Amino acid sequence: MNDYYKFTIVQNGKLTLNVKNTRLDKTGDFGTIFLLDNSGNIIKSNTGPQDDAQITHDLTPGIYYIKISCDGDKETAEYSLTTTLN
User: Fold this and answer.
1) Per residue, what are the HEC states of the chain?
2) Which has fewest Cβ within 10 Å: 6, 47, 68, 69?
3) Is a pLDDT exceeding 70 seen at residue 51?
4) Per-domain residue ranges for the chain?
């Protein structure tokens, strides 16, 4: 399973992405979070523990994507995604 989120940055800033596993039994490990540029190239990635993952990166104006991958043969994951730009 892969989930994609598209977003646009209109000013320079430090982006922070947080993904937290919200499944109570923690069996739906979301795997890896990726920050991608407009061409799909990986800017940064983080394979967090079963509970969460975080990416922080300085960005310039443009279009970007977040990709959240589920580990192995899992077809679903329950997670929350939060973003901040400072």
Assistant:
1) CEEEEEEEECCCEEEEEEEEECCCCCCCCCCEEEEECCCCCEEEEEECCCCEEEEEEEECCEEEEEEEECCCCCCCCCEEEEEEEC
2) 6
3) no
4) 2-85
Name the amino acid, one letter, at 16.
T
Check residue 62 and give left, alpha or beta (phi > 0: left; psi -120 to 50: alpha): left
CA atoms 32, 14, 81, 48: torsion sign: positive
Give me the chain's average pLDDT, please.
84
Q: Average pLDDT of 36-63? A: 89
- What CATH number does the domain located at 2-85 have? 2.60.120.380
Is 81 exposed, middle or buried (CB count within 10 Å of its CB: 0-12, 13-18, 19+)? middle
Q: Output the six-digit token pair for 13.
A: 């800033």
- Residue-wise pLDDT for 28-44, tens only, equals 556 788 999 999 999 99
